[in-house]
Structure formats: C-alpha cells, structure tokens
Amino acid sequence: MYDYLRPIRPGLRPPRRSVDLHIIPIVSLIYSFALIDRINLGAARTAGMGPALHLEIGERFSIATVMYFIPYILLQIPGNLVIRKFGARNYLTFCVTCWGAVQLAMGFVKTWGYLTFCRVLLGLFEASFFPAIVYMISSWYTRYEVQKRLAFFYLMSLTISGFSPILAYVFSLLNGKRNIAGWSWIFIIEGSVTLFLGVVAFFLVPDFPELNTFLSPDQTKFVLQRVEEDRGDSVPDQLTVRKLLYHLGDWTLWAYGLMFMCCTLPAYALAYFISIILKGLGWSTTAALLLSAPPYAPAFFSAVFFAWLSDKTRHRAGFIVIQGLISITGLCLTAFSPQNSVRYLGIFLLNAGSSGCIPSILAYSANNVVGSSKRSISSAITVAFGGVGGIIASTVYREQDFPRYLPGLWVTLGAQFLLLFLVGVLSLYFTRMNRLSREGKLAGPLEGQPGFFYTL
C-alpha cells in the first residue's frame, strides 16, 4: 500500500502523457480488431458467405448474429471479478488470443450451424475485454479526465474498425486462392492479425496503477494520490458476496446499462447491416462495401469534441442529450427520406450521435460511483446491456423488411427517446441528492465518500 502522507519529490508533474501513450494506443488497436471480428459477419455475407452457407433461409443470419451476445452478456460481471486476480495483462492476452483463434476458424466452416457455434465462442472470449478496459482506464484518471480518454480509446477503435468493409472487400479479392472463397479469407486474415495482437498484448498492455512497471515509484504514487484525492478509491477494496449484492441493488447502475443499450443499438445496427442496406438501395457489392466506411470518420471528431467540452465543463447529461438528438435526426432522415443521398447523410448523423454517446455514458457512470469493486460491477453491467442492444439490433432488422428495415429503424428511434428519458430521471435524482447532501439532510456522505457529489 502506498503512503499518501509521505511527500512526493518536489517539481514532479502528473505523468499523464506517459500514461496516455502506454494505455490508449495499444488497447485501442486491440479493441478495434475485437470490433472488426465482431461485426465482419455482414461484410462476409455481402461478399458471398450468404449463398455459400444458405444464410438467406429463414432467420439464419439473425440467429448466427444474435447468438454471439448470449455468452457476451452473461460473462461481463464474472470477467471483471477475476481480472485483478490474474492481472490485466495475463487475462486480456488470454482473451485476445482465444478469440483470434476462433475468428480464424470461422474461415473454414462449412455450414451455418458451425458458424453459429463459432459466434458463441467469439462472444465468450470477447465478453470481458471491453468492460475490463473501461475499468482499467477509469482507475488511472480523475473523474474529469476520463471521458476524453474513453472517447479516444473507443473512437480510435471505432474509426479503425470502420475500415472493416474496405478491408473485407480487399480480402475478398483473394477469392479462389488456394481454393478458398473470398469471404473465408476475410475471417482467416483478420483472425491471424488478432492472434498476432494477442502476442503483442502480453508485452505491451499495461496493468492497474499499483501494478504498473513503466512509471517510477514517485510517479505511481502521484497517480494514486490524485485519484485518492478526487474520489477516494485508489486502493482496491475487496469484493465480497455481500458487497456484490449491495452494488447490484443500486438502481442507478441499471439505468446506466439501459442508457448504454439505447446508444449501442444503432451502433450495432450500422455495424451489421450498413453494407446490406446500401446494397438494397441499389449500389453494387463493391460500392456498398466501400461506402460503409466514410460514416465513421466524422463521428470521431464529433465525439472527441463533445468529450473535450464535457470534461472541461465537468458536465455529462446535457451533452448526452445533444448527441441523442443528433442520432434521432439521423434516424429520421434514414428511415423516411425518399432520396438515397439524404438517407446516406442520415447514416453519418446517426453514427456520430450514437458513437459519441457511448464514451459519454461510460464517463457518466464512472464519475458517479466510488470504490473499486463498485466500479468493476458498474462497468460490467453497463457493457452487458450494450450486448442487449446488439441482440435487439440483430432481431428487429429482419430479413423480410429488406431493404429499408423500417420496423428496425422505428425500434432504434424509440430507444433514443428512452435514452433521453433516463438522462432526465438521473439528472433530477442526482440534483436532489446533491442538494440534500449540501444541506446535511442525509444520514451520511454520498457514496460513503466525504466531499463527494454526483456529476450531472
């Protein structure tokens, strides 16, 4: 345990840049391939996997898509409970290597049943990665530094993965090489890259602050002391069954999860169906794959701008509302405009709004919990509900609704209004609790931490 009372070497500055460079680029690169491996099913189908595995029969494609999310949701909390026991580097390396192997194996499946089985395994091994990274990143930074980092992490990953359709098109050009279909090459090459990143992860992925090896002892203590002064949870508390049940009884954690579900639903819908929708609008297979990438570029700049503004103003809810309204605007254009060019513009707006909401909600939840154990449970619940958004996206965009998918777009639109409602409820609750705490009308400090107030 670090001695917070012993003075730190005079003139020592917070090592934020060093921490940023050691954490954000490598986890962003790895997670980008988690996203690519998760969402390349639509591109592979467009490139010929559909007829090869008879995915057009009934709801086979939706079933293969949705089965990924069953283990993905169920293993969120267990994964976050054991990461400190095994160490972030060891645990995350194991996960990356395993899902890379599964992704490579998908290139050799002969039936849609084996494809679905591989999707289940993929969900099993990817389940813990995202909540573990969110948990780890939030443990390094103070409350009003974290959204910019989460935004850069997520959006760098999303931007890289946004080129997945282009990569899929390039890899599909290998069709017939070594008697392997083009869609199979997509899985084989991308799985091989993920396996390589698993090796890289063992050497480069950092650990939690108190276990890191790239900072000096004084720098490490400085990081921990800043976190301790900000929210009082730099030293991890032991998670017991009683604590687990107590944390699960906090309704705000489930509200964050529902909000996350609402903003991931359009993200998954675009990931799985954008190339299919574009092809249905009349573009060729090549054009549909190539036009799937551009909507991801503006989303990066939009979300980073809102993250910077949110950290600067120390405010979260209002910016979530603004980005939710951007998503609603994009959905309305995509669903109801008769012109394909306007519908394509709507996809840009939808992607910008939903992509920006994701790090915003992660930061909102991270700012309003105290304690390492509660933080791990909160991030796991939040990301698990993101998987629920994936299930909804996989099932409401039905084969019989091709090419416009209006019922799916209506469901996605309703989710955005639910998001705005939940933000309003939480804002009213946090405002009231902060007021009662300042007036001394509560039995104890908020979240059990003296001086703590909820971030609005």
UniProtKB/TrEMBL annotation:
Spans through the membrane: 21-41, 61-83, 90-108, 114-138, 150-171, 183-205, 253-275, 287-310, 317-336, 342-364, 376-397, 409-431
InterPro entries cross-referenced by the UniProt entry: MFS, MFS_dom, MFS_trans_sf
Record Pfam families: MFS_1 (PF07690)
Gene3D superfamilies: MFS general substrate transporter like domains
UniProt topology in membrane: Multi-pass membrane protein
Domain Major facilitator superfamily (MFS) profile: 23-432
Top-rank taxon: Eukaryota
GO molecular function ontology, one term from the record: transmembrane transporter activity
Compartment annotation: Membrane
Keywords: Membrane, Transmembrane, Transmembrane helix, Transport
PROSITE patterns linked to this entry: MFS (PS50850)
One cellular component (GO) term of this entry: membrane
Entry protein name: Major facilitator superfamily domain-containing protein
Species this protein is from: Mycena rosella
Organism phylogeny: Eukaryota, Fungi, Dikarya, Basidiomycota, Agaricomycotina
